[in-house]
Amino acid sequence: MKRMLTLTMTLLLAMSLLTACGDSGKKEPEVDLTAYFDQMIKDAGLDENYMADLEGEMLESYYPGISDIATKQLLAKAPMMSGAVNEMVLMQCESEEDAGKAAAILQERIDTQAEGGAWYPESMEAWSNGQVIQHGTYVAMIASAQFQETWADGFNALFA
User: Fold this and answer.
1) Torsions phi, psi of 68, nearest 5?
2) What is the pLDDT, as a whole number, of residue 25?
3) Which of 35, 136, 145, 160 could connect to 28 by a Cys-Cys bridge, CB 3.0–4.6 Å?
4) Cα–Cα distances in Å, from 97 out to 93, 101, 135?
């Protein structure tokens, strides 16, 4: 009986040790999305006022449902007067589930614009190259005729 109890206790201890090892300890980095955006604009050689904030009704009209998602950080930017496609949303959501919902809303924006909402062939092509990128609770939508790859790579590098 003692041997069975000792064996059982040993197995339980071993299992508890293995369970504790299950967490890789890797935590999501804290990223200041405003600082990242400001640096991207500077690196691109764009004027700091080139892109305006999308807020309120305009935000909701571009991305229906986005206002219902709980966020820690949210930047939605687009030039108000430009023929070039340069639109960006950077978000840190409260949960990965919320981030998934946000990613779906942002992908819908890309698809709608690429399928004719952007009107002009060059604009629709730029939108078709747009990307939604998710890293944990962080989500980015990047659509840019000029800086698509650079901005997407920069966002991904924040989490490498």
Assistant:
1) -85, -5
2) 55
3) 136
4) 9, 6, 12
Please name which of 160, 155, 130 lies closest in space to residue 32, comparing C-alpha atoms.
155
User: pLDDT tens-digit profile of 119-151?
Assistant: 899 999 999 999 999 999 999 999 999 999 999
Residues with Cβ within 8 Å of residue 23, at least 6 apart in sequence:
none
Residue 8: per-residue pLDDT: 47
- Written as six digits, the tokens of 146 are 């000029």
**CB contact set of 34 (below 8 Å; sequence gap of 6+):** 73, 75
Token pair of 5, please?
A: 């109890």
Cα 132 to chain centroid, rounded: 7
Name the amino acid, one letter, at 155.
F
Res. 11 pLDDT band, cuts 50 70 90: very low
Check if the beta carbon of residue 127 is closer than 8 Å to that of residue 141: no
